[in-house]
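Please predict the structure of the following assembly.
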Amino acid sequence: MDGMTEEFRNHLDGILAEIEAEGLTKRERLITSAQAGRVSVRRDGEEREVINLCANNYLGLANHPRLIEAATRAMSDHGYGMASVRFICGTQDLHRELETALAQFLGHDDAILFAACFDANGGLFEPLLTEEDAVVSDSLNHASIIDGIRLCKARRYRFANCDMDDLESKLKEARAAGARFIMIATDGVFSMDGTLAKLPDIARLAKKYDAVVMVDDCHATGIIGSKGAGTPSHHGVEVDIITGTLGKALGGALGGYVAASKPVINLLRQRARPYLFSNALPPTVVAASIEALKLVEEGDMLRKQLFDATNYWRAGLSKLGFTLLPGEHPIVPVMLGDARLSQEMSQQLYQRGVYVVGFIYPVVPLGAARIRTQMNAALTREDLDTALAAFAEVGRQLGVIT
Ligand SMILES: *Cc1c(COP(=O)(O)O)cnc(C)c1O
């Protein structure tokens, strides 16, 4: 018995040593302040304030007084926890209020909340599609979409990232194989690259091959499109199913949702396993998310700040000679290639008061390591200038720029 345990532990230690030897170990920093443009980080007993360039806090709402007030109020009149899944005794008026507000904001009939968008994507496909059907999925889709698709019995097709010819050939294949229903699944924004899916082309192909379109808009809702309604709004197209998160622009706490037509939402309420078998979101998060949606709808100024910062940051890094992936999204990836270099560079930037993270395999493909910087409305021009100076210094020192 003990020997087995010992062997098992050694086996796991071996894997960890391999990860370490390849320079792929991810280390977590201890933040001791609220999420904001600048955060306090504790290391080796030392506390340090750093400029945070890696939060999904796009509109700077993660510590917004109106969200905190809404959460505090909800805690006193709706309590702390639900201690139940939704269908037993976990649905408060607040949950339905948020679902209705999300549906309205996204232009769909109804919405359903999950504990996370990971769960929304994980639970979406299995109830809607059977072995008679097909899913055609972008190769760079979020891990939760990949897992969700694995859990359903539909036939699976994968098309090369944003490659519309490949999408069409996979749609043809699915039709030729006799698929009853076909669903195309894509991220609205690809989170490692900051590129937008080609929704107008996807919508056109969906129509041609009579397919349903599902878009995960986690990195778009709140910031892209009219009033932040997301990539369909930005591109002026309609899609059938939207999934999203409350954990990014919409306050950054946690929670996910699906917005779609009535039958989709109603069936998910009956059959989606992460919905049926996991606890309801706490009132604090639900109430603050309702408030976040209001701030998003009045948020043209915040979005202007966000995109001004993005343009300034992109131009500054380009001028220094860094290789960026092209785009307009507040995700600005600084391409480095080598995993160790990205770790070393993020380490040195941290020493100079800039908090960024090297993104390495398996989060990005091998040899495509990068520092993914992200802009948000809470960053000041001074923050950006300080960060640019640090990037210049470290970039030269490591030979990334000349
Ligand atoms: C962040 C993210 C998720 C997961 O959202 P959570 O609510 O944190 O689980 C899913 N899909 C995409 C595209 C994301 O960026």
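The chain has 15 helices and 16 strands. The mean pLDDT is 96.
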